[in-house]
Amino acid sequence: DADVTQTPRNRITKTGKRIMLECSQTKGHDRMYWYRQDPGLGLRLIYYSFDVKDINKGEISDGYSVSRQAQAKFSLSLESAIPNQTALYFCATSDLTSGSTDTQYFGPGTRLTVL
Amino acid sequence: QKEVEQDPGPLSVPEGAIVSLNCTYSNSAFQYFMWYRQYSRKGPELLMYTYSSGNKEDGRFTAQVDKSSKYISLFIRDSQPSDSATYLCAMTTSGTYKYIFGTGTRLKVLA
Q: Given an 8 Å threshold on Cβ–Cβ distance, is A102 in contact with B95?
């Protein structure tokens, strides 16, 4: 089974709808992240969480919110979806080990289309 | 100017060729350098990471960092069609979560 799973894998929705993307991990990592990927712009950080009670905005958090329900679960919500939120969304996890960097491991992604 | 620049490609090479993928960066504080491989409709997969300057080898892959030139490279020897993917560079300062990603180079290895 995959270490980082995301649901749904594909979603088409309409402008103004609320949508939730979910991420679960079995790696036992404390840190979890949400990114979006757009052609020509690369991966950009939306939100990150270092543990259940520590949630922080990334560089492009406007229009998004998150919930860390447990160490293993981190959800991303679009309160009122708009077409320019059409993108690939990735969840990632990491576990900072002493003497090393914060290596991030990615889920398979959710392709979201907002009409 | 972007902090990390990466040629988007596509780069097409024949099977068996040596491939060179590159990124340049502007922030001299970056200490850790990563290469991710992303197949179509999949998430990025960590290939290699390197600390500071120097080379690191893993099978057919070699990662090289030249901090004086702010330039990193990934070499793939004896390239295979299965290496066809988008390759993303990423970098970060010491011990931080904040990765800066390149936009990715699309590689096609032709059989």
A: yes
| Band (A101; pLDDT cuts 50, 70, 90) | low
Residue from B13, B12, B36 nearest B23 by CA: B36
Inter-chain CB proximity B45 and A106 less than 8 Å:
yes
The set of residues, in sequence order, having a beta carbon less than 8 Å from that of A66 and lying 6+ positions away, is: A34, A46, A47, A49, A55, A74, A75, A76, A77
Across chain A, what does the average pLDDT equal? Answer: 92
Reduce the DSSP state of residue A96 to 3 states and report it.
coil
Give the 3-state DSSP-derived string for chain B, with helices as H, strands as E and coil as C: CCCEECCCCCEEEECCCCEEEEEEECCCCCCEEEEEEECCCCCCEEEEEEECCEEEEECCEEEEEECCCCEEEEEECCCCHHHCEEEEEEEECCCCCCCEECCCEEEEEEC
Out of B36, B51, B97, the one facing A102 most closely (by C-beta) is B97
Q: A81: distance to nearest CA of chain B, Å?
A: 22
Question: Is A4 close to B43, i.e. CB distance below 8 A?
Answer: yes
CA distance B74 to B48: 9
CA distance A26 to B99: 22
In a mutagenesis test of the A interface, which of B42, B94, B99, B100 is the best target, namely the one with the most A β-carbons within 10 Å? B99
Which stretches of chain B score pLDDT less than 70?
Answer: 95
Q: Which pLDDT value is given to residue A100?
A: 59
